[in-house]
Amino acid sequence: MLKSAYICPHPPLLIPSIGQNNLSEISSTIEAMDCLSYEIKKKEIETIVIISPHGPMQMGFMSVVGTKCLKGDFLQFGDDTSMSFENNIDLGLNIKKIADARNIPVGIINSGTTLDHGAMVPLYFLAKHNPNIKIVLIAFSYLDYQKHFGFGEVIYEAIESIDEKIALVASGDLSHRLIPDAPAGYSPRGKEFDKLLINLLEDNNVGKVLNIDSDLIEEAGECGLRSIIILLGTLSILEKYQFEKLSYEGPFGVGYLVGKFEF
Which end of the chain is more exposed for a tag (fewer CB within 10 A), N or C? Predict the structure, then answer.
């Protein structure tokens, strides 16, 4: 059963041993992520289904990782923090089965996969109080937004078919072009994109999220929109839900949004 749904950023700077002197500048994000970690504990979540923009993405199909044990570390960021989780393989296979029946292209990836920072940063917080929690790791594709929305509907059906408390997490950063020193360069439209997307989420205007101007998306240099669209597809089956922004900041030129959906 779906019990929680969150939007989480994934800057490695959120990890204390990496962020170090920069932590004070992203304190709102850290505080919001800590709130989600306590909520995961309170709701006794057993599996986290996480959609990562930096997973094993394929051009023509969504990916569900089938490796029994999912491990990762932050060595590429100069830190030896590592994590390991059991994969909820049955849930992943059920997602694939339902997707096949609905003609949503999904592949099971069984080799050469490790936890990427898009998954690890949120999990560092969300699994803090339950290191034995299982996960399902999903990567989106280059298919159109409607296919991603439909994939979200598939995920909902798969989650509801098992007697287990599940949290769904859309990992993703918003614009990477908020300031002149931003990692992807500067665009004045970066802030425009972030403000628009957050407003649409708060207004529950899914139709407009699916039809944000493509030039604006390109200018923003985001990495989380497809993750969010999949999540919105999952929630679309519910009678009612409401988005709550817990924090948003972008001191280093990348928009970090933390939010949860109440339903």
Answer: N
- Strands (E) across 140-182 are located at 166-171
pLDDT-derived band at 224 (thresholds 50, 70, 90) equals very high
| Number of residues in the chain | 263
The amino acid present at 188, given as its one-letter code, is: P
Report in angstroms the alpha-carbon separations of 248 from 29, 99, 189, 255: 7, 33, 17, 7
Q: How far apart are CA 197 and CA 151, in angstroms?
A: 20
Average pLDDT of the chain is 97
* The pLDDT of residue 86 is above 80: yes
For the CA atoms of 76, 77, 79, 80, what is the dihedral angle to 10 degrees?
A: -20
37-79: per-residue pLDDT in tens? 999 999 999 999 999 999 999 999 999 999 999 999 999 999 9
Buried-exposed string 55-93: b where 16+ CB fall within 10 A, e elsewhere? bbbbeebbbbbbbeebebbbeeeebebebebebbbebbe
Tell me the CATH number of domain 2-262, given options 2.60.120.320, 3.40.50.2000, 3.40.830.10, 3.40.50.1000: 3.40.830.10
Phi-psi label, residue 103: left if phi above 0, alpha if psi -120 to 50, beta otherwise: left
Mean pLDDT of 100-128: 94
